[in-house]
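A reminder from the course coordinator: this example appears on the midterm review sheet, so study it carefully.

Given structure:
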């Protein structure tokens, strides 16, 4: 599978402009997604505060991989994914305190654990240079799409 650039899927998710943190989808299937990004190094990253991008924001990277995965699954079925609201983070592990000073790309992995019409649960893992720097689980409640 060839990587999918943001121009292929960016319009399918609610995160727009600089708030869309992922750059490309390396591969995906019904259960998993692997995305890549360099947005942690951008000075205009909207999650920065005091010039620093803290590692806790890797949870948002993981959550966005869920949104992209859900949108790609819906599109493959000829549908549109419902917008979701992050409601829970569990078992979050962070291997460092900040990420803006990391050279090179981040690899963001998501694995769908549960998926239904009203909620999704995923495990996520973020790697830098082949080493895990964050992991956890996230749950999203889905809003209904008006007809």
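Designed residues:
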């Amino acid at each position: 599978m060839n990587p999918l650039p943001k121009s292929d899927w960016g319009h399918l998710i609610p995160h727009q402009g600089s708030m869309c943190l992922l750059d490309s989808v390396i591969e995906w299937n019904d259960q998993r997604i692997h995305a890549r990004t360099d947005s942690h190094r951008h000075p205009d990253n909207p999650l920065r505060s005091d010039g620093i991008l803290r590692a806790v924001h890797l949870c948002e990277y993981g959550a966005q991989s869920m949104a992209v995965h859900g949108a790609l699954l819906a599109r493959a079925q000829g549908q549109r994914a419902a917008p979701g609201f992050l409601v829970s983070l569990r078992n979050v592990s962070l291997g460092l305190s900040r990420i803006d000073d990391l050279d090179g790309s981040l690899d963001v992995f998501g694995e769908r654990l549960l998926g239904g019409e009203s909620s999704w649960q995923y495990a996520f893992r973020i790697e830098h240079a082949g080493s895990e720097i964050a992991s956890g689980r996230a749950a999203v409640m889905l809003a209904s799409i008006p007809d």
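The helical segments are 6-9, 58-76. Residues 58-76 form the longest helix (19 residues).
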